[in-house]
Amino acid sequence: MGLSEHDLFLLAVLSPFAAAAVAPFVTRVLGHRAGWLLALVPLGIFALIASHIGEVAHGGNTVVAYDWVPSYGIKLSYYLDGLSSLFAMLVSGIGVFIVIYSGGYLKGHRYLGRFLAFMLLFMGSMLGVVLADNLITLFIYWELTSITSFLLIGFDNNREASRRAALQALLVTGAGGLSLLAAFLLISSTTGITEMSVLNASGDILRDSALYLPIFILVLGGAFTKSAQFPMHFWLPNAMEAPTPVSAYLHSATMVKAGVYLLMRMHPSLGGTELWTTVLPIFGGVTLIAGTLLAVRQTDLKLMLAYTTVASLGLLVMLTGTSIDAAITGAVLYLFAHSLFKGGLFMVAGTIDHEAGTRDITRLGGLGRAMPITFFAAALAGLSMSGLPPFIGFIAKEVLYDGTFGATTDNWAVTATAVAGNALMLVIAAAVALKPFTGEKVETPKHAHEGPASLWLGPLTLSLIGLGTALFAHTTGEYLIGPMAAAISGGTAEVELHLIPAHFGAPVVLSMVTVALGIAVFLMLDTARGIVAGVLRAIGWGPDRGFDQVVRLIIRMAIVITRVIQPGRMQTYMLVVFLFTALALFVPLFAYGEMPEWPEWPALSGSNFYEWAIIAIAVLGVGAVLIASTRLNAIVSLGIQGFAVALIFMLFGAPDLSFTQFMVETLSVVILALVMTRLDLGNHGHRPLPAMIRDGTVAVAVGVGLGLLLLSVTQWPFDARLSEFFTANSRAIAHGRNIVNVIIVDFRGLDTLGEIAVVMTTGLAILALIRIRTRKVEQYDGTKREVRIARTYSGERWGGDVS
């Protein structure tokens, strides 16, 4: 039986995870050539998504859904429209060249197979993010990208910088993920909708909600941390500690755009409000300028590109925040162009480092003759990043200027910010693409030469695609950019792209200003670098340093809290547990309405004398426990209440429960007595009166609270559906006549197994405790004394300095 289209789609989306499982074994057999074979997986995914381009371009979409946790409305659902299809093609298409590049870049590395497995796991996670329709499914994939990026950033785990960068990225994006989960839970509880496509088609349901503000803030928490918006931008440049294939894939074309994707995806349901059009342009604009200025200061090729990635993400957020259709079209086109030229330039930077032995731009020059193919690819990508014709970056710049200034002059601040940011990005593009290859030959740590095909195939292909999509601009707009812009705006978008501007207007003038400013700064790059560095030194403190301070503060707070709530005294632990139990019992009684919901007192007039006698025995047992002079007497007296309860079960027609209660109480007394024989069974230590009053009050509160709770429960109408189910099915399904036994062994078999495991673990813990003996140690002065083994939570225990 053949696979349906939906099954084939699901198989394609999940295939990177399967490929990750076999990647180490394939690498063991094929070595670095495994990258060429494993690249067939993203190539197949790209082909599948591309086959739907025509349908998507004409307004069609594909929904694939499988029930996952139907009781909670969670589906394994995927949605393919203009937005998700372009993102998925970028993830899979660029992924083809990244997997090939990884094999060449890490040739001979002992953990190449593991690296390829991590990369494929990330690919599958990112595909899930951009294709998932169900909110919880999207969140799970979202967190998977954080986990897999942690593994990739910290791949070189022998270096402290790599470990720190990986942990920093995980903490920042993980915190954003929790924020996003809270937003999704609020959305589903407010609207009852769990599918993103349905939510976006529901009009103003979120914008009119009283919870719009918290939902908006929580969504921004997830998007801004993932897409490195100021002031959470610091983790992305630090993540450049990862191998270059990671930088080229995660931090240019895929993961860091997940936040932008989220904002674009939720624009139909959240966008267009005054809050949206104010907050997003401000944060995006600040991120754009901060990222480009920080890029000017750098001399490391990867860091220069990383900070311009931060800037580009800010530009995308700023444009999306305007909620202007033309500006959104510019954002889409720039996102597409950025993925092509930035992915290619990152691979160029990695190739230079791989073949020349350094990424320091001040130690590079004249590599054009030694690495002609790499130089050609870098030049093409650099021209596109600079926004010069005839490349897709040029068209993107023209469209975004038309969307900000051309649509309405009220957005002059957005336009001015975009011009300044694009001018500085031209400076970095020229520096990365030209300086290492032109000028006099500089002696490098390694003899520079052209790398193998696996290293230059990716950047060359992506650069040529940037040229080809510009030359065929009309087709690009019709099949790629238009459908994506329509999905973001929530309607239809007529996109007409032209390589040559239709008229000489504001966008052309702004482009000329951008190029002029960029060339001027590039000619004085060293001076500009010094100025920016001086300003940053004067400022001193920054978010990266602040992150370390926050982590140290959290550790110190954790130690203080641990010392308070974990003092090593069992009495304190028991007091806290019972105190909060009492609060949990009494607070609901007062929380609803003006008067507490006290249960009605049951009628006791029909009780028999022997029932009162049993209750009296239980009360006498309590008194015996309280007045017991030794712990052993208290333990034995404690069994009186259990036997009294067993008698009540017997009187009210539950002999099986009565027998169980008798056995449990007997065993409990015996086991406790055996344990206590290994401990001090002397008289109780004297306790001051305030402590006795405190403990007695808490004990009475718990007892009264439980009594009131049980009275409340018994006064509710009895729901017999569960009893009827077990009565009807115990014999038919489980083939047992004793319903209680069938429930324990069959219907709740896993619960019973878990309870057995808990009891066994508790028993082992008790055994370990009673085996701790008092031992004698010899002192230097010849005397002997008894000491007990103890653990402390002092500063010395945790290494003293926690910074």
Automatic annotation (TrEMBL):
Protein name (record): Na(+)/H(+) antiporter subunit A
InterPro entries in alphabetical order: CPA3_Na-H_Antiporter_A (IPR050616), MrpA_C/MbhD (IPR025383), MrpA_C/MbhE (IPR046806), ND/Mrp_TM (IPR001750), Proton_antipo_N (IPR001516)
Keyword Membrane carried by entry: yes
UniProt domain NADH-Ubiquinone oxidoreductase (complex I) chain 5 N-terminal: residue ranges: 71-115
GO annotation, biological process: monoatomic ion transport
Membrane topology term: Multi-pass membrane protein
Keywords, in A-Z order: Antiport, Cell membrane, Ion transport, Membrane, Transmembrane, Transmembrane helix, Transport
Positions of transmembrane segments: 6-27, 34-53, 78-100, 112-132, 138-155, 167-189, 209-225, 246-264, 276-296, 303-321, 327-352, 373-392, 412-434, 455-474, 504-525, 573-592, 612-628, 635-653, 659-677, 698-718, 752-770
GO molecular function: antiporter activity
Domain spans labelled NADH:quinone oxidoreductase/Mrp antiporter transmembrane: 132-415
Cellular component, GO, one term: plasma membrane
Domain MrpA C-terminal/MbhE: 693-771
Subcellular location: Cell membrane; Membrane
Domain called MrpA C-terminal/MbhD: residue spans: 617-679
